[in-house]
Amino acid sequence: MILFGTFAEEIVYRGFFQERISWFIKPSYAIVLVSIVFGMMHYSSGYIPIVVYDIGTIFIDSIIFGIIFNRTKNIFASWIGHILADLVGIVLLLFYI
């Protein structure tokens, strides 16, 4: 699931939205705009400080994925970064919480 889910997100958010929005505004603004939407898409209910922290870290990750995609123009490069970030998150959840 992690392979398919991350690939689908990268196709939609970087390959489609970021690429198309970059036609009309600066790529750096497109990265921030898409990252805001990407972070909000991951919203879940819960203890507000944890939810805000979670969305904030997802926003930062998304900016990194956006920069990778913008510089390489390669969806697979941002996908690998996304997979690695999710794997680190899973390991931290399993072994440290």
Structure characteristics:
single chain, 97 residues, mainly alpha, 4 helices, 85% helix, globular
Describe it.
The protein is mainly alpha-helical. The chain has one domain. It is 85% helix and 0% strand. It is built from four helices and no strands. It has helices at 2-21, 27-41, 48-72, 75-96. It is globular, with a radius of gyration of 14 Å. The two termini are 22 Å apart. The relative contact order is 0.15.
Set out the fold topology.
Layout: H1 2-21, H2 27-41, H3 48-72, H4 75-96
Helix pairs in contact: 1-2, 1-3, 1-4, 2-3, 3-4
Brief description of this entry?
With 97 residues, the protein is mainly α.
Overall shape: globular
Task: State the helical fraction.
Answer: over 70%
Q: What is the SS-derived class?
A: mainly alpha
Number of strands: 0
Secondary-structure element sequence?
Answer: HHHH
Taking pLDDT < 50 over at least 5 consecutive residues as the criterion, the unreliable ranges are none
Number of helices: 4
Binned strand content: under 5%
Largest sheet: none
Cα-atom radius of gyration: 14 Å
Number of folding domains? 1
End-to-end distance: 22 Å
Kindly report the average pLDDT value.
Answer: 95
